[in-house]
Design goal:
single chain, mainly alpha, 15 helices
Length: about 325
């Protein structure tokens, strides 16, 4: 969070005249609070998924809601990952655009560094995963090379938020850009190499509501009843195309103007961040983190599998080597 947003939040809280809901929303705009909520939700999911009542967690996660006629009859976990997380990506898209247009990343040389580091942080983990599985005599596993290339941006930024008060602003922007580019490239890899069928019709049709949203927001529109319908339609069409629907959130975030008479980036980020940090991201974490280990024997067997070793080595060793090595070379 920028110093200006922190000052604004403290000023509003100090006045003592804002209603309770506004106090809560201002609290949720504090990134450490959002990060703590995410980590708490993830911890609760892990405990429940590995308790004697784990069946209830999985039944809740797999409960299907939504209109089947629109192919949106999704499980609650899918709604959290594809729907709610798009709100988070919208906020990230707005913040990144502000940095690219008016912040530290407006210099192409500075912007190139975290982007290249993200690429290095994807190539090295994939190479380590493939090397381990080939060396162990399991070439049939190399199709999983994409698993260790992605960093879960929501969890990464939650940890970053908790420690961001101790980091220089330039390093925080570098890590933010690195995490977002890493995630978007991973989504692209999955869409190109691991999606059986990308429906180009819905993907092309999504450009229409995105264009309408961009036209409205560039003209200074801020009313929810004007902006929400094309945003939801764009999300639904991207989802129907087979591409990860959170991409729609990033694209919509990048259409918000940062400079000029109708600049509204700070307004939208200030408005949407409490919903993202206080509800969307913790709910996503709750449904994403509930992995049932299956007892110590199952856990030990899983750890000894070449796929598990390759993923752990790729993430724990490959990510730092790829990111730091590329940064050092540049």
């Amino acid at each position: 969070m920028s110093d200006r947003r922190q000052t604004t939040s403290r000023r509003l809280l100090a006045r003592g005249s804002c209603p309770e809901w506004q106090r809560v929303s201002e609290l949720l705009r504090t990134e450490t609070v959002g990060g703590a909520l995410l980590l708490a939700a993830a911890g609760a999911a892990l405990v429940w998924a590995n308790s004697p009542w784990s069946g209830g967690y999985h039944r809740l996660s797999e409960f299907v809601v939504g209109p089947q006629s629109l192919h949106l009859n999704l499980s609650l976990s899918a709604w959290a990952a594809d729907g709610l997380l798009a709100i988070f990506f919208f906020v990230v898209g707005v913040e990144l655009k502000r940095e690219f247009v008016a912040g530290d990343l407006r210099d192409p040389a500075r912007a190139a560094l975290p982007i290249a580091a993200a690429v290095g942080g994807m190539v090295v983990p994939a190479a380590i995963f493939v090397g381990i599985n080939l060396f162990s005599g399991h070439p049939e596993n190399i199709d999983g090379w994409a698993v260790p290339i992605a960093t879960d941006i929501a969890f990464a930024l939650a940890v970053l938020a908790v420690v961001s008060t101790h980091l220089p602003a330039a390093l925080r922007i570098f890590l933010l850009t690195l995490a977002v580019v890493d995630d978007l490239l991973a989504i692209t890899v999955i869409a190109v190499f691991f999606t059986d069928h990308v429906a180009l019709g819905p993907l092309a049709a999504a450009l229409i509501p995105i264009g309408l949203y961009a036209f409205a927001v560039q003209r200074g529109a801020r009313q929810w009843w004007i902006l929400l319908p094309p945003a939801v339609l764009a999300w639904a069409l991207v989802h129907a195309s087979g591409v990860h629907a959170t991409v729609a959130g990033v694209v919509l975030g990048f259409t918000v103007p940062v400079l000029g008479r109708h600049a509204s980036a700070e307004h939208f980020e200030h408005l949407v961040r409490p919903l993202s940090a206080g509800f969307a991201v913790p709910v996503f974490a709750f449904f994403a983190a509930g992995v049932t280990v299956g007892g110590w024997s199952g856990f030990a067997d899983a750890l000894s599998h070449p796929v598990t070793i390759g993923v752990i080595a790729g993430l724990v060793l490959g990510k730092p080597i790829g990111v730091l090595g590329t940064t050092y070379l540049l």
